Amino acid sequence: MQKNLIRIDKITYRYPTDTEDMTEEPEQELPSKDKGSLPPALDRIDLEVEKGQFLCILGSNGSGKSTLARHLNALLVPDEGSVWIGDMDTRDDRYLWEIRAQVGMVFQNPDNQMVASQIEEEVAFGLENIGFPSEDMEQRVKEALASVGLSGLEKENPANLSGGQKQRTAVAGILAMRPACIVLDESTAMLDPKGRREIMNTVLELNRKHGITMICITHFMEEAVHADRVFVMHKGKILLSGTPKEVFCKSDEILEAGLKLPVICQIAEELRQKGMKIPASVITQQQLISCLTGISENENLNTSDS
Amino acid sequence: MIITLEKVNYIYNPGTVNARQALRDVNLTIREGEFIALAGSTGSGKSTLVQILNGLKVPSSGSVSYDSSVLANDRKELQKIRCRIGVVFQYPEYQLFDETVLKDVSYGPKNKGLSEPEALEKAKEALQQVGLPEETYEKSPFDLSGGEKRRAAIAGILAMEPEVLILDEPTAGLDPLGKEEILDLVRRYQENNHSTVIMVTHNMDEAAEYASRIIVMENGFVLMDGESHEVFSHPEKLREAGLDIPQAEQLCLSLGLEGNITIEEAVQAICAKYAILPE
Amino acid sequence: MFRNITLGQYYPVDSVIHRLDPRVKLLGVVVYIAALFIMNNIWGFLLLGGVLAVLIGLSHVPVGYMIKGLRPALILIILAVIFNLFSGTGTVIWKWWILTLTYSSILRAAFFALRLICVILGTGLLTYTTTPTTLTNGLEKVFSHLRVIRFPAHEIAMMMSIALRFIPILAEEVNKITNAQLARGADFETGGFIKKAKGMIPILIPLFVSAFRRAADLATAMEARCYHGGQGRTRLHPLTYQKRDKIAYVLILVFLLAVIALRLIMERCLQTGRI
What we know:
Order of helices and strands of chain B: EEEHEEHEHHHHEHEHEEHHHH
Shape of chain B: globular
Distance between the termini of chain A: 61 Å
CATH architecture of the largest domain in chain A: 3-Layer(aba) Sandwich
Strand content of chain A: 15-25%
CATH superfamily of the largest domain in chain A: P-loop containing nucleotide triphosphate hydrolases
CATH topology of the largest domain in chain A: Rossmann fold
CATH superfamily of the largest domain in chain B: P-loop containing nucleotide triphosphate hydrolases
Oligomer: heterotrimer
Strand order of the largest sheet of chain B: 6-7-8-3-9-10
CATH architecture of the largest domain in chain B: 3-Layer(aba) Sandwich
């Protein structure tokens, strides 16, 4: 019955209030020191992830999306409920390293997640930690760098790389461990548009070609358009879920979650308000164009009738 | 204040093997009350230009003048110019340091030479402008949320009442709502004070929606400079500089509609072409 | 502007010295410095200088580049020479005011200068031909023998390599914060010592906050990538001895014995008065 890669079962999580600010999730707001009044960062979340899916979790800052991400590879464990990776419970210490090798994570700040002063050492870091045999390591590192399009930069210093290249190196570092799933925790937030495109293309390709499950946590709505499923989080709960088409037509809820529709959806929405018949399923530029040109043909037919 | 740059060049590490020319023969005139978007890919020289504009860097050659008085390379003069031209750097919340938000915001005015009560007064005004509620004033800036920190940091510059406000990617890293809040705040500030605003951005949708003039940098040169519709009417040239064109414009161009760059313009143009008008 | 700081000034060419195991090179430097202090006569120094010249030749690092490395220590060398020059005893050959020059002091100053130059060139040869990462690996391996006395070799090596990676980043951060505060009208240059020190607070606090944030981020990222200390860890390029390393060890041993022998012989000669 274990067909799903990740099963999240009614998890609730509260940040401990006595820890230092530094160790907390950066976006987490802790206005009050009184634990009783503090809303949980995650509030009875249920989520299942099938193997090979491309998932997008959207949410504003403080919605709990990064907290959720950290539950996926046992960086955090739930107060209530449970998280299963395959048939491993994240609370079981025996599986800790296995889980972290299965579910890799790319973080937001490219500079703060690199350990080594050389790309190949950086990519090998995870493999070294799990005691992977040295003889085969070089091969793995080469393959991983090739999959993200960075072959030939093995000896380079990360300081000389662009933001997009740094994040791709981070992806390679995870790929080398042959994970089942990669979680990108706002990994595009600090990049310029070019770097953002680089990462999204890499991620899409890895998902399509190699069947790696991708969980993309972001507040760039455009990045969610190509996902198989989209979840919108708000105040520790999942507010919306479904295919991008299903989610992006619920503009009120999206606004409520502190997000904005992608530009194309905004235009479609305004056209609808002006009385044009544009189906709610239109979310990409291409769809809107074919829809509009379709309208104009119908329009011509109508006018010729009258 | 009018800023004029004439044949400005800037070279990093001149005379060494690492020498790199960041600006090449830049000529610009920044007029009063303009809302300018300064665009360009990473490494195009826009950050260097910002630092030249407010006297953090002195050109290797060429001249910068403010209201037709040429800037001298003198420490006191430079400090004065820095107080007249406010720069909000990227991720400005990382410069917050004082015990309370109010004290932190009054740091700039105090450096300008205002007395403590005057500086606090300016700080309060600025905090109101950025819409931070009064109960945050006595909080530690490190206890604010991400968006609030950003606004406090911007207030730190506004409190100095700069004649020109420069913002380097003010929305980077914020969520959509946070972005909109900051951009609306900048727009409101610009409209109310009729002051000059220069916003460095990668996001062409933002540039189209907010700016009236766009300056595009590439490889240290000013590649394009003009009214936003004019600049966006050359999509090939923008792509060459590694930039996009606004999504609304992309859509309109695919539909054969030219010259629409904001969402509003796009909606109107599409309606005009395709809509069934109410009978 | 801080992006291109390289710590240790690795000179990227290929040579037999570059390819040597860092542990061999570390031992070599230690033995060489010891030899410099064992040796006490001009013939010995000629030998040591010759050995160094051969090694530099083998390393393919340009001599000019090596000499440039001496520049920061130049003042130290000159001061040491002057100090030694006028503090000798024995036959006075020149005297002015309180300054006296003797044969023995000239000799001592010369030896001192030579020793200092050779120490700098010798350690320089190590850092020019070994990347910081490899050097750290070597140190980790060498000190891992001290695990019996609970010496945290892996932890220290990890800290060193993280420091190597983050020092340039933090240096750049200082630059950014300074610019941001200058843009807020800060003045870091006028005033007395206390005012200046106080003026640094707006730079230091954001720097510490940032450093802690980076440290927390990095710790999480390392944990997420299964880091759990040195135990059971493998390496991408594990240090293994090649034939050349074994030969180098033998040569170092021979060198050490030769130096000791030379000193003993010279002393014997001096005693019997044949020179």
